[in-house]
Write a structure and sequence with these properties.
By secondary structure, this protein is α/β, with parallel strands linked by helices. The chain is 46% helix and 12% strand.
Length: 414
């Protein structure tokens, strides 16, 4: 059996798909994983022993090109749909199924490949807010604000169909026409399907049943990481009290030019040591005092259990990793689903939601005071024991069962 997994986005998109790939391999499945060929993702997949099918462009190169060219979202979508389709059409040779996530144009290309080949297709989301439901509104797209005065979630999700058609419809349908597929009057539902997978933890993000989609919540897809921490970092951790860890992953934090300085000064004011994760924000030390340390990408699973709190952007993966480690969290949300995760952390009592996307000394200090209380630490430790680690295994078995039933149905009809 052969399966193509496809994603295009940040590390938060790639790493969970790698977890699913490993789980499928454990069942003897031949897995192809299409992902951006950024060096950090190449290294991640190499450590996991997974073959990489390079996507049409690295994420960093794509973002830089999009900024230089100043193209609108519909034109960028058209480029991505066509380019990703070409890559995945070749990679799908002999495949029985495609599982896709990431940016919408890339997922639309994956769906079209599956449709042309007549094979099983699954869309996966890492956050419930991306899926239609009467229990929450959709995100607003640039240039497609919600209609004034409309608060009913069903009406907003109906408008979301129009918004996605306006932004992506021409790109998707033009390419479908070029490859001989019929046009769509609802690109969202064709790409998302009525039965998407929700690859998030049910404690951190419980899914409420909806008649708009029949989502299957598998639990978060967590890739086991056996890497030791760098020796210099080990020495820093052992030299004093557990530090507060600060890192914003793939968020450049471009609206906040002094993020590292603000974080260091606010944490020091709480009498704590500081550990910076450089990330795409390119955080840097502000002096040579020995209460601060900086490092690049490391094993979060090994690190987060050894810090007093984690200050981060609120990506689904980082939020889940910190929750699983029992580390109190301060989320400084930037985009898309990150305010949702910040709200969930606050609601669960396992950390604090920072007020706004740009931290100041006062605002971050207020969040730190809340997250560093003994009560928050105790609650974070209690919730840690409820976070599931088998989501990728559940999803792998679900896919294999689906394919097995499809084969049986085919034999019965033959």
């Amino acid at each position: 059996m052969r399966v193509l997994l496809s994603t295009y986005g940040s590390r938060g998109d790639v790493q969970p798909m790698a977890a699913l790939a490993v789980a499928l391999q454990a069942h003897g499945v031949d897995v192809q994983l299409c992902a951006p060929p950024d060096q950090e993702f190449v290294a991640l997949l190499d450590r996991a022993g997974l073959p990489l099918v390079p996507a049409f462009s690295s994420v960093r190169e794509w973002v830089a090109m999009a900024r230089r060219a100043a193209l609108g979202l519909p034109r960028l979508a058209a480029i991505m749909v066509a380019a990703q389709f070409e890559v995945m059409a070749a990679a799908a040779d002999g495949c029985d199924a495609i599982v896709a996530t990431g940016l919408f144009p890339s997922v639309a290309a994956a769906q079209a490949v599956a449709e042309t080949r007549g094979i099983r297709y699954v869309f996966a989301s890492f956050c419930p807010l991306l899926l239609p439901s009467p229990h929450h509104p959709p995100f607003e797209y640039p240039g497609q604000p919600h209609p004034p005065g409309v608060a009913d979630n069903r009406a907003l999700w109906a408008f979301n169909v129009q918004a996605k058609n306006a932004l992506f419809g021409e790109a998707v349908n033009s390419h479908r026409a070029a490859i001989g597929l019929p046009p769509l009057d609802n690109v969202r539902d064709q790409v998302f399907t009525h039965r998407p997978w929700l690859a998030s933890d049910p404690v951190l993000s419980p899914w409420r049943a909806s008649d708009l989609v029949d989502a299957v919540q598998t639990g978060a897809w967590i890739l086991p990481d056996q890497r030791p921490l760098p020796s210099e970092l080990q020495a820093f951790l052992e030299a004093g009290t557990p530090p507060v860890c600060v890192g914003f992953g793939s968020m450049p934090m471009s609206a906040s030019k002094d993020t590292a300085q603000v974080a260091i000064e606010a944490i020091r004011a709480q009498g704590r040591r500081v550990l910076l994760l450089r990330g795409w924000a390119d955080l840097a030390l502000i002096d040579d005092r020995d209460d601060c340390f900086i490092t690049g990408e490391v094993n979060q699973q090994a690190l987060f259990g050894r810090v007093s709190a984690v200050v981060h952007h609120g990506g689904a993966g980082t939020t889940t990793a910190a929750a699983q480690a029992g580390a109190p969290q301060i989320i400084v949300p930037q985009v898309v689903d990150q305010p949702f995760w910040a709200g969930r952390v606050a609601e669960l009592g396992i950390g604090a939601a920072h007020d706004g996307a740009i931290p100041s000394f006062d605002s971050l200090s207020a969040a730190l005071r809340m997250a560093l209380t003994p009560e928050t630490g105790e609650r974070a430790a209690a919730v840690a024991g409820t976070i599931r680690s088998d989501g990728a295994t559940v999803a792998a078995k679900l896919l294999l069962d689906d394919l097995s039933r499809a084969c049986e149905d085919h034999r019965a009809r033959s």
